[in-house]
Records
---
Amino acid sequence: MTTLKSSGPAYAPTHLIIDLDAIANNYKILDVSSVQTPCAAVVKSDAYGLGMEMVSSVLATNGCRTFFVSLLDEGLTLRRILPEAEIFILNGLIGSEAEVYHEYRLTPVLNDISQIEIWSGSQISDTPQPAALHFDTGMARLGLTPVETQSLIENQLKLLRFPITSIISHLACADDPSHPLNKKQLEQFELIAKNFPFVRASLAASSGIFLGPKWHFDLVRPGASLYGVAPTANTPNPMCQVV
Ligand SMILES: *Cc1c(COP(=O)(O)O)cnc(C)c1O
């Protein structure tokens, strides 16, 4: 099954041909590579430009139950087509949109203390809505800093007014298996995870899956490799070509 994506001018001379079967195959390869660990899918940025709605439907048909997007709007679009899926919003809360998350059962990934406070403050019903927490262990892009992490674990965890469904961190150099930061981030994340004994932990994106089972924890969350991008530098690409 292939599909044609054309959102530009009607007579544009170039077309993008997307092989949805290849995406399904790549999902299976990643699911098998992560062995017992469930495999989520990152479909942010319109599934890396390939069309979030089509791609997500194919992934759901092939057994994917958990999806990550960056923005609330992406989550709302995804909710319309996948009423049962678990949907995480990586950028978390920006302003006063907590109610929308509640209404559409979207799970924010909280990236700093102020997002945690906003989510805590938004819990009004007897059934508090869950959130995920993102810890920065070396990527230095999103997530609680080591200082914030320490303070949260020591002082604030017991004050949270919502359940934590998952904790995540993101590897910075996983496409280079010999890079020392991989092990450092792994150890850092293991230490953090000890404070969350009954919470699902997720560290590996595409490249991390191929570092080995220690990096898999309870959920892996590939993006690029689903769409055919090689997960590891300077080695043959195990993924099927999609575009
Ligand atoms: C984009 C992203 C992913 C997916 O990464 P890939 O390298 O494309 O597999 C996973 N986790 C987070 C937090 C991300 O931002």
---
Amino acid sequence: MSLGEIESRLRSAEAKAGREQGSTTLIAVSKVQPNERVEAILDQGHRVFGENRVQEAAGKWPMFRETYENVDLHLIGPLQTNKARQAMDLAQSIHTVDRPKLANSLARLAQELGYCPDLYIQVNTGEEPQKAGVLPIDADTFIQDALAMDLPVKGLMCIPPVEEEPSLHFALLGKIAKRNGLAGLSMGMSGDFESAVALGATHVRVGSAIFGARTATG
Ligand SMILES: *Cc1c(COP(=O)(O)O)cnc(C)c1O
């Protein structure tokens, strides 16, 4: 599917939900995609991208940024503490803050560097043991602790379990965000971004529907 088609589906979903046009940011998830495909999307004027791995992002975005201005990069994959500084150098948003150790590192680095990317706290809404994210029951405390550290927490992020109805997870994420006074909701991927928009997503993360299937796993 083309970028234009995804954008128009996004705008239709906003209209259907009675939401303002453009209230959802489309993050084009470029992980594992060949550079030519990423450049094709950049050439169409799109500037908001998502990457899963710091290493991979560091290998291509400084190069793309030499040619394309105003790239807005979102880190949407798990972040190791020892890569936090590099992530802060590269990305304007980090969607995967999920444990106190990482929050502490980000707070310390923010002090030292004098800036911090926008942060989203990942919630493991499906309580899956193999998945990152704070458990729903621990979310309020973790969010409030992070805010108390003066971290720029903008919202929450989730990746619903593959075999479950995503809407239930989107609704739960929205509820946790609302009661904590957070406006941002990073939710919805290629297969379910329209239902995420219906439930208030501010950022949808769409990879394969824009770029085509990934040739490697990421
Ligand atoms: C890869 C990935 C996406 C995009 O997935 P698609 O199904 O290709 O749209 C979104 N969010 C996260 C966290 C991802 O790792």
